[in-house]
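Technical note accompanying the year-one report. For the benefit of new consortium partners, we illustrate the data format agreed upon in the data management plan: each record pairs a sequence with a structure-token string. No post-processing was applied to the example shown here.
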Amino acid sequence: MADRRALVTGAGGFIGHHLVRFLKDKGYWVRGVDIKEPEYEASSADEFYVLDLRVPESCDVAVKDIQDIYHLAADMGGIGYITSSHAGITLNNTKINVHMIDAARKFGAERFLFSSSACIYPQYLQRDADVTPLKEDDAFPADPEEGYGLEKLYMEKLCQYFTEDYGFETRVVRFHNVYGPLGTYDGGREKAPAAICRKVALSQDGGEIEIWGDGLQTRSFMHVDDCVEGIYRIMQSGYHLPLNLGTDELISVDGLVDLVSAIAGKRLIKRHDPSRPQGVRGRNSNNSRLREVLGWEPRIMLAEGLVPTYHWIAKELEAPAKAPLAAPAVAAE
């Protein structure tokens, strides 16, 4: 694929950084773009542009001479952030997404993949911890999470319209909670697995760990290695409609804490705070369509993927320069 040129937006972030490396290993020439450079290691991209994709001219620069666009750039974070910044998130991501897909078509890109989210799914289907796994067709009648979920759903439809009206090749991936090494673990935008790993690593054996909610809320979690492979497979497919990308291994937040504590060899007392944001009661991925389209689904079990994730975060926290910022406690997207 040495003659194939790919763009990864959000390449300074967690998934984008891993995706750049995955594509380079596949032989692609890769341009990375983000408003910031990667935090934990240098990008392996052939070119890395620091650009603000809310600005149309920046999108024009980003997409020039590119064939495959993996559009991951977004203003996002954990539940504490996405429930407190509806206006900013919606405005920023709408600008980024609209300008990017418009520039991609205008400059002749061949394929455009948009990273959506399970946050688009109706809240009325996620009120039970023992949730029925969510199918792609469940998105309507719509009742997405405010702000972040709503703007993701809007962009999914815009991708559909670009394909139907202009013949522009689009792909839509609905992520279900991604975790792994080299991801944000402090500062307020981290997701539940990273936040829990951080808090366990900083806790003394026999000490307390604070959890938002009662700990019974459930999610499924996908390792970043499975995520980037799934993204690539979906881009190679001819499938234009949204696809879930996640595992169907449902676990409670308390169960997640127990897994990480066991990896760390610590016994911790859970202290729950039901007054803090905790998101929907339950969320899980139905992978039937993913298996049908790709003949593949994520394979790394949570107990396996959390081991390198925990040890990477624990090692980061040992370095004085990596002392954690003041951050929210454990939460789930």
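Partners are asked to follow this layout when depositing records. The longest strand covers residues 111-117.
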